[in-house]
Amino acid sequence: MTGDFDVGKKNEVRQLREKAAYDRETVARILDAGLVAHVSVVQDGEPVVVPMLYGRDGDTLYLHGARKARIVRMLEGSGKACINVTLLDGLVFARSAFASSMNYRSVTVFGQARLVDALDDKERALHVISEHAMPGRRAELRPSHENELKMTGVIAVDIASASAKISTGMPEDEECDLDTPVWGGVLPLELRFTALQPDDLVGDGVEPSEALKAMEGKKL
Amino acid sequence: MTGDFDVGKKNEVRQLREKAAYDRETVARILDAGLVAHVSVVQDGEPVVVPMLYGRDGDTLYLHGARKARIVRMLEGSGKACINVTLLDGLVFARSAFASSMNYRSVTVFGQARLVDALDDKERALHVISEHAMPGRRAELRPSHENELKMTGVIAVDIASASAKISTGMPEDEECDLDTPVWGGVLPLELRFTALQPDDLVGDGVEPSEALKAMEGKKL
Predict the structure, then answer these.
(1) Sign of torsion, CA A26 A31 A33 A37?
(2) Domain range B17-89+101-170, its CATH number among 2.30.110.10, 2.60.40.10, 3.40.50.2020, 2.170.120.20
(3) Residues in chain A closer than 8 A to B171 (CB atoms)
(4) Is the pLDDT of residue A38 over 80?
(5) Cβ contacts of A197 on chain B, cutoff 8 Å
(6) The whole model's pTM is what?
(7) How much is the average pLDDT of A32-47?
(8) CB B144 to CB A98 under 8 A?
């Protein structure tokens, strides 16, 4: 993942252009930081958007769901997908409603969806998704059963174009609003894992792996 | 907001039906808890999804952006919108990859978008959005200038149908996977405001309002 995505009609950022980026490193960093993608497709001429787990391998995003799930069938059938991953980093309190805003990291991807059908390709794609959401976990678990793989629908979206948009920092107020005795600044918002909670079925002496423990307290 | 949304082809939850809800109270609770909506529209026959701030008033969602922003013009032009708000609550570590999942609160809304054009209607809608993201803040700020209102595009989406999907609790493993000496449980994920950070322009003795202070540490 190096170089820039071509900027075209679909992925060009038109508002707040100074916050836009088209380089693969920035796009990949945000995709790798997020956990849920909002995947949109067209069905019968109308828009549908569905939140999905995902994983990235180079310029390809992998998505999964039940093989029979509507979103899997729509992606399989419709082809074109637009996917957004956004992490909210805070509220920006300016001295006017107009200048108030949010801090965020956001990526929008446009691409072609295709069904991943061969069982070994599916397994590889599911590994990518699993490593993204639960790094190291799959190595602890038994291999997937063939019927589990068959019941799982896997979609690959080859990224045709993408853009990132990043907003950070403090309010940018108009000069004329600065004498008002109103507080201005930022209220950060954090998405963070807390502490592992075992279920009632964990056997005596069975501890979470180091990989799982390393996720505790982690900020996305 | 009482009663159920009618269940039809668009909003019926087909996978994990036991996690679905169609009552307005549940839908409203999740919409009111979230901060960013993923708004999808069809443009030139292809899907587009954009993250947007929003606010809810009864069965109407309000969205805003620059008046000239592409998403505002697309919503104005295309009419149909599908909007999802998802809050991720944790990763669910089961003893198989297949049974592993996430905990979440999610709402999907289908509706008709229309431009809000009259300045006083715009102002009311912007108040709804502002109160949703920054409760109490607008009362501290000067009224919007007319040119600010004109530069802001406001869209109302009248909710035609909606569904909620909520997943909570511990892994549901297959019986045959339970003798493996693998840890199982949940790693909660929290979206939380931290502490207010003033900018360099806050005057001596100017403190954040009680409404702002009340947001510190708040979990979404």
Answers:
(1) positive
(2) 2.30.110.10
(3) 199
(4) yes
(5) 185-188
(6) 0.95
(7) 96
(8) yes
